[in-house]
Amino acid sequence: MTIHNDRKLTTTQSFEEILESVQPMISSILTSLRIYKDYDYYRQVATIAVWRAWLKADPSKGQLSGYIYSNIKGEILNELIKEKNYLAKIATVDDETLDYLRSEFEWEEYNYPESSNLLESLVCQLKQVERRILYLYYVEDLSDQDIAKILGFSVAASKKRRQRIIKKLRNKDFRVRKKQ
Predict the structure, then answer these.
(1) pTM of the complete model
(2) Which residues of the chain have a pLDDT value below 70?
């Protein structure tokens, strides 16, 4: 927790003064958390954390620098967790898979770019487990038995779910409803 000029932070200082003083602290936290990707974004998260700490600081409860440090680190960790959870929920579908699904679901009557965009938007609107099943089956090329093991279903349930997903994507009413 190195503070610029070794100056003690106080709640009487302006936000700008405090923010300037804690820049080395922010850099240190980002380095310790090994944040190299989206560095500017996480620096902004840290700036907001400093602002919140500055607004809520109570000098009777301890040093401001410690409070700011814990706020910065906590906010960055929360943001990293949110990003990890978001990425875990998304099953991306590559162009090759979309092409395969497009031919599998008999979407040839549609123009290529429009049908791929529509199919991709429909896949994104499926439940997380449905997207995961499609991903494991078509992208990872796993069998129903393998998918059942991974997701904790019976083989019959895995196969039935996949068939329902395909039926849902083939259903023109579903496509029209989702398109609107």
Answers:
(1) 0.51
(2) 1-7, 87-120, 172-180
Rg (CA), the chain: 25
CA distance 124 to 132: 11
What string of H, E and C letters represents the secondary structure of the chain? CCCHHHCCCCCCCCHHHHHHHCHHHHHHHHHHCCCCCCHHHHHHHHHHHHHHHHHHCCHHHCCHHHHHHHHHHHHHHHHHHHHHHHHHHCCCCCHHHHHHHHHHCCCCCCCHHHHHHHHHHHHHHCCHHHHHHHHHHHHCCCCHHHHHHHHCCCHHHHHHHHHHHHHHHHCHHHHHHHHC
Residue 140's pLDDT is: 79
Q: What is the pLDDT of residue 131?
A: 80
pLDDT of residue 179: 45
- Cα-based distances in Å from 164 to 60, 93, 132: 61, 19, 14
